[in-house]
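Supplementary Note 3. Input sequence used for the single-chain structure prediction.
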Amino acid sequence: MNMKKIRKISNYLALVAFVMVLASCSREKSSSTGWEFNNPDNGGYEKLPYIEQETGPGLILIEGGSFTMGRTEQDVMGDHNSNPRKVTVSSYYLDETEVTNSMFREYLYWLRNVYGTDYPEVLRKALPDTLVWRDRLGYNEPYVEYYLRHPAYNDYPVVGVNWLQAADFCSWRTDRVNEMILVREGILQWDPANWSNQNNFNTDAYLVGQYEGTVQKLLPDVNPKGSGERKARMEDGILLPRYRLPTEAEWEYAALALIGNTTDENISERKLYPWNGHYVRNDQEANIGRMMANFKRGRGDNMGVSGGLNDNADITAPVLAYWPNDYGIYNMAGNVSEWVMDVYRPLSPEDKSDFRAFRGNVFKTKVLDDELRPDAKLEEVQKDSSGNITGLPGQLKFRNVEVEKDNLADRRNYRRSDNINFLDGDINSQVRDEWVGVEADPEKAESNFMYEYGISSMVDDKARVYKGGSWKDRAYWMVPGTRRFLDQKQATNWLGFRCAMDRVGSPVGLGGGGGKSK
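The predicted structure, written as C-alpha cells, is reproduced below.
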C-alpha cells in the first residue's frame, strides 16, 4: 500500500474520531419532547445507560419458550393430575445446584448474629428439622447429628427444610446479594459489627428511604431541586430482582432442557428425563453404564454392590455430582426432590394460564402512612394471631390488597387479594368478583370447603407442589412432569430446594430479540 493511500485512510479515521467526540458531547434527547436527558437545565430527568441484567451468584440464565408441560409417559399412579398442556415460560434464572448445607448454615449464622440476642425465636424458626432422618426401624442417628453440620456434607443438598423456610431463605438471599452489589459499587460500606435487629440491609426498605446504612459515597443527582447527591434507586439498574422459589412450570421447563434437542423450533428427540434417551444409564463411551442420577434402583438397593456402586451415593450426593443437563443445571433428576412456589390442585395443568402458569397468587402492597409514603420498617418481630412470625425487624410492612382501600372495584384483571382458589372448582371460586365480601349462603356452607384438609380432601391452601425424584425414589419420579404435594410446614429427608430469579429485558441476553431490527 503506498503512502498516499495510508495518509488518506489516516485522515478518514481522524475525521471519524472527531465526529464521535462531538457526538459524545451532546446528550440524548427525548423522542416525545425533544428535551435532553440528564440535563439539570431541562429539569434533570435521568435516562441512564443500561446494557444487561447482571447474573446473580449461583444462577444460570434459562432462555424461555413454549413446551408441553405434564406427564410424558403412562400415568402408572392413576392420579391424572399431570395432563399434558402447552404453555409458555418467560426467560428467568435458576440456581445451578440445589441449596447446600454450607449455604444454609451461612444463613443461620447471619440470623444468629443479627437477631440471636433479642429475638432467638427467629433463629429457631429457620432451623432445619434434623430429626427427619430418624427411622423407627433403621439406624440413622449419625445423620441427625452430622448431616447438617459436619464439613463432610458441606456440598450436599440441605434437607429438613419446609416450604416456608425455603421461601424465607430466598428473601434473605435477595438482601445479602443486593447489599454486596452496593458495597462493590462503592455506595455502602460493610459494617457487620453494627448489624443488629432493625439495623440491617433490606432491599425494599433501602429503595423507599427507610435504610441508610454506612454510606461510602452517593450517586450524583442532576435534579436542580436536589442536593446534588442521591441514593441508588431501581431506575439505576444496579439492584437485582428478588430471589424466589421457581414456579412449577419453570422448574419442569428447566429440568427438561429442550434447548439441547431443538433446532429452528423443531425438537429432534423426545426426552423422558433431563438427558436424552429413555434410560437411566450413561451411553457415552467414556462413562458407559454409569447411572445418570442418584435414585433408588429397587427395594433394598440404594447404591449398588461394593466395588461397583451404581450411583455412588447411599443417601444424597454432592450437588455437583453426575452430569448437568443442556442448560448446565445439576441434579434436576434424583438426589433430592425440590419445593416449587405453586399451591397444589389436582387440575392445575388445566386451570392455570398458558403464559407463566402459576397458582398461588396472594397480592400484597406496602403499608402506607398518612402521607402516602411507606410506613417505617419493622422494629420488632411481627406475628400473626397464631403466633407465627410474619415479619422481621428491618423489613417493611406489607398487607393484603383490599377492595376499598386499593380501589379494586373498577379493576378488570383482579378484585381480591387471595387468588389461590380461583377457578379450582369450589363454590367460592365461582362467585363473581363484584360479590366478594358478601357472605355465602349458609345452606351451601358445606360446599365452600372443597379443599379442607382432613375433611373432604387431602389438599388445602397450604399444600405446596414439589417436583422431581430423590435418592429415596424409583426412576418413575425423575420424569420432570411428575408432581406431588406436601403441607408447607412439613419437611423430609429427601426434599430440598433451589432458588430462581426473574429475567428483566431481553429474553436471550445482550439486547437480542426477535422481529426486525433497524
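Residues 3-9, 14-24, 432-448, 514-518 have pLDDT under 50 and may be disordered. The longest strand covers residues 337-343.
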